[in-house]
């Protein structure tokens, strides 16, 4: 492998070291529009090379080029201008307005394309839009801005992951996360955390949002098939900022704000309310002759101290809240360039506190993007991002008693949070005081991430470019916990601690050859061949133990009793060859795209290691046809279509092998055991996607948008096929089963007013997706192997993880007992849960409809932006209702319940939602009462600001000064009044190990209000 | 000029082509590393490899879903010894007979033991390096584990105490065998398979290779055979199997003075086989001990399994076994304080076969076959500070079994095989009712995952 690495590097080094002398000189000039006004931001490239720049604020530019080379000037809404470099060093250009206003260059993966040349479904979101959401992890800023894309934050804890689904879910038990690509190189996303019990930490949180120029989302096969076996779920391309030639621009971006929970959430019972319900429960159970007798007994027993102290209310929700939690983000950048080079450098800092005590996120980051023309036709560029993150995590993914988030539910209201002197009350019992624990225990995630991306291009002949890329994504992760020996769970074992380290390294090498062939003005070809090699190696080591000699010690070395040591090593490798052709005829009137990728992946056995992926795409720009060319009202009209085969290989490593594992031990000695059933035949699941669409711009682009229809058949699903447990295994991963997603997307934008003083635009998108399993494996009797849990069922004819459970029939007004329909639908009811049939409840946890709405308004220097998001058509299930949301012994005698429980049955005739209270400990019974419609609308961002006029700034030496007030998640509307929690939940099945869409006790999203300033000089 | 250009062009193209070929990835270069596991095929080459997997199979037994907790706790909470106070929400479903096919239990774990045992049993020892007689001994041990797992499955899921006919559980004798979708064997077929495995095991094993009480040994085969024979009333077999163990002279009853303390240490003279647990295993909250009691006196941790108040009345004041019991929460909750005493970590070994049970099995089998049961029965009382019985009766023996084996997971099966009705309680020890014998609820439901994956599997009656 080492020799291989050396060879992969060879072309890279060869290019770095080669010298070639050209008569390159510096060209400068200014670019103006039709009216002679300077045009800032005009893109200037030396045709056939990768060197390019943009005009500055005053429309001026500087670029290096040789005589005879062609400079291409392009700008949105203007006709592209080409000028051949002559003897003069000044090239001034006046641009003309172009009706084809969609001509924007979009990064589409291994290539960049003009908007009109794109044959697939591609959406670009620029930095301005992304910046409207202040979040550590940029994926959350996509919510509402891309049609067909759903974003579900898994938690409101700062730095947590979000689930992104593009056009539904393509796989049942393999991964559904899209592929992330930063500056052309695939990178790792997802949670870096080692312990699923604690808050997740997103790898993407390591990328400072203010360094991102734009994000492009690739949705269809023609756009994604170039990424082979990892692109069935869509691709998200992140382009970082680069410098522009000209004088150095310094930029300061700062915001500081305060956050609180975006929703109130369930309100716990007060001690007085709980006493009343508990008294009824004891009476109903026949323990006492009357409710009053029961209350008297309780007041003499567990409630005596509370009663004697004047019946104080503990208000745990207030005790654990971190009101007006701080969120702040600051960045400082410098960008510019000179003779043959450009650069962008930045420093950033972000801090976000959680809305409960004991959790926060902090990041410091830096970046340096540098590009240098080594010779007239060799360019070296390097993009580097580095960050260090700290997350004060906590136990939040289950009903952990020590979590401050769950304290208001799991702590009895009879326990008071504080002593009279203000210190945390150290009460006994099964639920220790989290206020003490957050002060004295530790659970910290730390991640250092360095992404370095280095590229050399060599324009070695007319139209030919050879390039070589070498990328490293290094993630150094550390996780540690400590429970103090004085109080809480660490007390019986004299304290405990653990510490884990993971080094995760990704390498990517790419060598490619581009050839741009212009037969004549009417026929243009772009060829690309590329080879790629990727490797990931993951090293993990850690240990845990207990028994400290003294308080204040937290490290493993001080532990008396080591209880575990763990290690692991995993790796995967991908090798690929890619060929792409784009044919563009008659100034992009007709466009044809072909791509083919052959990829080998270490996740599959030798005989099935290589797979083929391909796509065909075509576009017809009708507005360039003679019959529409003179149309007054059609500026752009494109019909496009694509079909292709893409893959998904998101399964654990080494699954094809039948394995004996040795990670267990017995009686102090190592032990072997059958660990993986294995399947030599394992290979990719494939998606066959049809995408057709129309892009349009009408009435001088006052109305623009697109419509797209897609139909994606996923075949040979990588499915954890249930095995008879008599094999010793519960499942075997096989390529079997089929799944379909189809739907449509509409994007539309209205430029209502657009003049010098005022602009108003309104944009929106709506998407619908229908997900259905079309085929599942069968056993030898021809019976379909469904997968059923207490909440969901996987069965053909239904969406994946469709909700499946008995149907609640309400509380019987005569008896006060909860009842269910015997047949699961209607008619006869029963109070014996085990007699009620489970049925499909309609839908799953993934939204079938999503929509976004954007409003942008400006008047003179003032501006207002708003973004809203709607998700609907899905359902979510409330977890933990047995302990918190049923009138049984758990909330009434041990923990605490929600105040909705007061709507309970007391006497015959009562029509209520909650049955008669009992002190019994009911078994887990999951049914439709706790399944809610999850439709919601959220005002994601609202920004009001003011740009100080540039004339006023000149005197103080500034080029830009903006003040703004920004609110995130200011309003949330939830359709179902009975849904007390935030409807945004984790929709990931974690490779089929959990039911997606259960509401846990995670942190809800935060509502924040921040003040900010942007300064350029 | 044109010619030069063309040459340069060819040169460049060939350089690129050569470089591309050099960096080409081959199928082999994409091989993943196996760092901590081994390929199942071809990695059993030595007798010691069998020992490694045998330990792995023992480790499956120690899981909280099997003998690490649930196997013992589920039986106790369904008996007249214990109920669940629901302090952590655990075992109320089992204790109140509310389980359904979604309620997990030991089905998967038991078949996992069987799968690993089958890999050992079906290996051709003559192809292995090392002491082949030792290899056969290890295969015998694997047969015992396979028999134990089949017996556990049968007593949990078999229909012998329900109304569903003669359905047992599938007998599996091969890993990745011909039939991956087995249907259920009859109760008798499973029983016969268990006896066969145990007899074969006893014949293959050599006591000189037995070095540890934490690995099943030769006489465990006979102890298990006696246990199964008592369960099914095969009394002659129970007599002879018990006599083999007793006749070995390797084990003895723990005397009264050290009975309670014997639970605090491992490998006592009375132990035939116990599962190894250590501080390093750190069962934590999933420990059997943690479900029997709170870590401190006050309600905390789990401690869901509480002892029914009148159980303490079974014991005379002089009986040392009364000291196994104790109170928590200011003297209000009767507890198992003495068996598996390490509450926070669960580092005590869990004995699965001890000599006292063998003696009690022997006594009962003698009673049923007309032998001298009383002598055997009073071997127990005389070593516990209890008054000796004046006569051996079925009731006396069952009572003595209840007292001696309390909290070890035997009582529910004793009630079943003698056809008793089962009382059950709510979380505040309020009597909820009595399940009458026979009853569909006495057999656990076949798990939903099994039924969905294998349509040959018949569900149990009533679920």
UniProtKB/TrEMBL annotation, chain B:
InterPro entries: SusD-like_N, SusD_RagB_dom, TPR-like_helical_dom_sf
Gene3D superfamilies for the chain: 1.25.40.390, 1.25.40.900, 2.20.20.130
Originating organism: Flagellimonas hadalis
Biological classification of the source: Bacteria, Pseudomonadati, Bacteroidota, Flavobacteriia, Flavobacteriales
Signal peptide bounds: 1-26
RagB/SusD domain segment(s): 346-463
Entry similarity comment: Belongs to the SusD family.
SUPFAM superfamilies found in the cross-reference section: TPR-like
CDD domains, sorted: SusD
Name recorded for this polypeptide: RagB/SusD family nutrient uptake outer membrane protein
PROSITE patterns, sorted: PROKAR_LIPOPROTEIN
Domain SusD-like N-terminal, residue spans: 55-228
GO CC, one annotated term: cell outer membrane
Cellular location(s): Cell outer membrane
Keywords, comma-separated and alphabetical: Cell outer membrane, Membrane, Signal
Domain of life of the source: Bacteria
Pfam families on file: SusD-like_3, SusD_RagB
């Amino acid at each position: 492998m080492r020799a291989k690495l050396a060879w992969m590097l060879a072309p890279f080094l060869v290019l770095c070291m080669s010298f070639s002398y050209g008569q390159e000189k510096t060209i400068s000039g200014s670019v103006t529009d039709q009216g002679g006004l300077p045009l800032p931001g005009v893109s200037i490239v030396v045709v056939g090379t990768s060197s390019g720049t943009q005009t500055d604020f005053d429309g001026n530019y500087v670029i290096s080029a040789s005589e005879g080379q062609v400079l291409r000037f392009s700008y949105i809404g203007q006709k592209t201008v080409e000028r051949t470099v002559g003897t003069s060093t000044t090239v001034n250009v006046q641009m003309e307005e172009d009706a084809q206003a969609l001509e924007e260059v979009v990064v589409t993966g291994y290539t960049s394309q003009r908007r009109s040349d794109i044959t697939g479904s591609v959406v670009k979101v620029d930095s301005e839009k992304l910046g409207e959401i202040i979040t550590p992890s940029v994926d959350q800023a996509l919510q509402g801005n891309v049609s067909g894309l759903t974003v579900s934050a898994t938690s409101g804890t700062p730095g947590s992951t979000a689930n992104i689904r593009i056009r539904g879910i393509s796989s049942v038990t393999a991964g559904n996360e899209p592929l992330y690509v930063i500056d052309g190189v695939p990178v790792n996303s997802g949670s870096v955390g080692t312990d699923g019990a604690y808050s997740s930490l997103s790898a993407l949180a390591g990328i400072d949002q203010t360094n991102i120029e734009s994000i492009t989302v690739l949705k269809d096969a023609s756009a994604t098939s170039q990424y082979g076996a990892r692109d069935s779920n869509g691709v998200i391309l992140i382009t970082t900022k680069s410098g522009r030639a000209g004088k150095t621009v310094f930029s300061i971006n700062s915001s500081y704000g305060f956050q609180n929970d975006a929703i109130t959430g369930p309100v716990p019972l007060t001690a007085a309310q709980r006493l009343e319900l508990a008294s009824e429960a004891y009476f109903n159970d026949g323990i006492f002759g009357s409710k009053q007798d029961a209350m008297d007994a309780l007041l003499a027993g567990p409630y005596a101290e509370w009663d004697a102290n004047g019946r104080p209310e503990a208000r745990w929700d207030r005790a654990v809240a971190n009101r007006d939690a701080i969120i702040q983000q600051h960045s400082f950048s410098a960008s510019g360039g000179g003779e043959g080079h450009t650069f962008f450098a930045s420093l950033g800092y972000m801090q976000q506190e959680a809305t409960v005590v004991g959790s926060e996120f902090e990041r410091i980051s830096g970046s340096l993007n540098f590009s240098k023309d080594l010779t007239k036709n060799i360019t070296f560029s390097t993009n580097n991002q580095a960050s260090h993150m700290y997350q004060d995590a906590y136990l939040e993914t289950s009903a952990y008693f020590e979590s401050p988030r769950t304290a208001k539910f799991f702590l009895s209201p009879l326990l008071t949070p504080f002593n009279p002197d203000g210190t945390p009350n150290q009460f006994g019992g099964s639920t220790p005081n989290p206020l003490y624990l957050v002060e004295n225990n530790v659970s910290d995630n730390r991640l250092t991430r360095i992404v370095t991306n280095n590229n050399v291009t060599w324009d070695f002949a007319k139209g030919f470019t050879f390039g070589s890329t070498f990328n490293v994504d290094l993630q150094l992760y550390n996780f540690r916990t400590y429970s103090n020996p004085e109080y809480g769970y660490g007390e019986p074992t004299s304290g405990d601690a653990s510490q884990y380290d993971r080094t995760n390294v990704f390498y990517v090498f790419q060598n490619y050859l581009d050839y741009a062939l212009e037969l004549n003005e009417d026929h243009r070809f772009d060829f690309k061949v590329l080879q790629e090699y990727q490797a990931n190696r993951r090293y993990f080591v850690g240990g845990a133990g207990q028994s400290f000699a003294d308080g204040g010690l937290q490290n493993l070395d001080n532990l008396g009793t080591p209880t575990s040591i763990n290690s692991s090593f995993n790796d995967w490798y991908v090798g690929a060859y890619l060929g792409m052709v784009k044919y563009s005829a008659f100034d992009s009137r007709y466009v044809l795209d072909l791509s083919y990728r052959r990829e080998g992946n270490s996740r599959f056995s030798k005989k099935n290691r290589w797979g083929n992926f391909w796509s065909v795409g075509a576009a017809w720009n009708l507005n360039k046809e003679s019959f529409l060319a003179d149309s007054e009202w059609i500026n752009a009209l494109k019909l496009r279509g694509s079909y292709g085969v893409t893959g998904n290989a998101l399964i654990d490593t080494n699954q094809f092998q039948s394995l004996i594992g040795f990670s267990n031990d017995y009686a102090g000695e190592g032990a072997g055991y059958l660990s993986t059933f294995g399947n030599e035949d394992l290979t990719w699941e494939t998606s066959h996607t049809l995408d057709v669409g129309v892009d349009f711009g009408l009435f001088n682009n006052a109305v623009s948008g697109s419509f797209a229809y897609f139909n994606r058949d996923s075949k040979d699903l990588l499915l954890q096929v249930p095995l008879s447990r008599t094999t010793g295994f519960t499942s075997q991963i096989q390529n079997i089963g089929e799944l379909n997603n189809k739907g449509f997307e509409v994007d539309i934008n209205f430029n209502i007013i657009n003049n010098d003083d005022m602009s108003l635009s309104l944009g929106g998108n709506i998407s619908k997706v229908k997900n259905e399993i079309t085929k599942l494996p069968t056993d030898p009797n021809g019976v379909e192997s469904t997968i059923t849990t207490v909440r969901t069922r996987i069965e053909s004819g239904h969406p994946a993880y469709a909700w499946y459970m008995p149907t609640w029939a309400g509380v019987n007004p005569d008896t006060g007992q909860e009842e269910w329909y015997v047949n699961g639908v209607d008619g006869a009811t029963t109070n014996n849960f085990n007699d009620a049939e489970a049925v499909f409840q309609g839908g799953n946890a993934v939204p079938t409809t999503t929509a976004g709405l954007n409003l942008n308004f400006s008047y003179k220097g003032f501006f207002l932006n708003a973004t809203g998001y709607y998700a609907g058509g899905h359902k979510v299930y409330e977890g933990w209702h047995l302990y918190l949301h049923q009138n049984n012994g758990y909330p009434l005698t041990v923990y605490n319940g929600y105040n909705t429980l007061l709507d309970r049955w007391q006497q015959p005739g009562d029509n209520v939602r909650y049955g008669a209270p009992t002190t019994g400990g009911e078994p887990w019974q999951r049914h439709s009462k706790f399944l809610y419609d999850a439709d919601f609308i959220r005002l994601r961002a609202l920004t009001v600001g003011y740009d100080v006029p540039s004339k006023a700034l000149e005197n103080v030496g500034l080029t830009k000064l903006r003040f703004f007030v920004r609110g995130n998640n200011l309003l949330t509307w939830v359709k179902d009044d009975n849904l007390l929690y935030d409807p945004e939940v984790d929709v990931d099945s974690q490779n089929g190990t959990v039911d997606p869409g259960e509401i846990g006790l995670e942190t809800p999203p935060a509502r924040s209000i921040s003040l900010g300033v942007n300064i350029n000089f | 000029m044109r010619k030069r250009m063309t040459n340069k062009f060819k040169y460049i193209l060939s350089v690129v082509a050569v470089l591309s070929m050099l960096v080409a990835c081959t199928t082999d270069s994409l091989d993943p590393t196996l760092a901590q596991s081994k390929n199942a095929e071809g990695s059993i080459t030595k007798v010691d490899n069998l020992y490694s997997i045998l330990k792995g199979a023992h480790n499956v037994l120690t899981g909280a879903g099997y003998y690490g907790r649930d196997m013992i706790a589920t039986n106790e909470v369904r008996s007249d010894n214990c109920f669940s106070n629901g302090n952590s929400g655990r075992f109320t479903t089992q204790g109140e007979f509310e389980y359904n096919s979604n309620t997990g239990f030991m089905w998967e774990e038991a078949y996992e033991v069987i799968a690993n045992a089958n890999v050992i049993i079906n290996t051709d020892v003559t192809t292995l390096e090392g002491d082949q007689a030792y290899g056969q001994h290890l295969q015998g041990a694997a047969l015992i584990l396979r028999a134990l797992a089949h017996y556990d499955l049968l007593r949990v899921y078999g229909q012998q105490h329900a109304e569903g006919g003669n359905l047992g559980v599938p007998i599996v004798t091969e890993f990745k065998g011909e039939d991956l979708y087995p249907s259920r064997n009859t109760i008798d077929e499973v029983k016969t398979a268990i006896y066969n495995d145990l007899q074969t095991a006893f014949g293959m094993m050599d006591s000189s290779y037995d070095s540890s009480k934490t690995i099943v040994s030769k006489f465990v085969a006979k102890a298990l055979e006696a246990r199964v024979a008592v369960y099914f009333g095969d009394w002659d077999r129970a007599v002879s199997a018990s006599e083999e163990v007793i006749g070995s002279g390797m084990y003895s009853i723990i005397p009264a003075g050290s009975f309670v303390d014997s639970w605090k240490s491992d490998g006592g003279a009375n132990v035939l086989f116990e599962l190894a647990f250590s501080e390093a295993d750190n069962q934590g909250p999933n420990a059997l001990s943690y479900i029997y009691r709170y870590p401190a006196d006050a309600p905390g941790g789990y401690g869901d399994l509480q002892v029914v108040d009148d159980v303490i009345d079974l014991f005379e004041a002089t009986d040392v076994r009364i000291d196994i019991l104790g109170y928590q929460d200011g003297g209000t909750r009767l507890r198992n304080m003495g068996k598996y005493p390490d509450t926070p970590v669960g580092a005590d070994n869990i004995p699965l076969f001890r000599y006292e049970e063998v003696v009690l099995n022997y006594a009962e089998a003698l009673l049923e076959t007309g032998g001298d049961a009383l002598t055997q029965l009073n071997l127990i009382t005389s070593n516990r500070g209890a008054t000796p019985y004046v006569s051996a009766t079925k009731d006396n023996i069952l009572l003595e079994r209840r007292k001696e084996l309390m909290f070890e997971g035997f009582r529910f099966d004793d009630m079943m095989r003698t056809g008793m009705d089962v009382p059950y309680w709510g979380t505040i020890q309020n009597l909820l009712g009595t399940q009458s014998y026979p009853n569909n609820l006495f057999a656990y439901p076949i798990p939903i995952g099994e039924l969905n994956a294998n349509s040959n599997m018949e569900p149990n009656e009533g679920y």
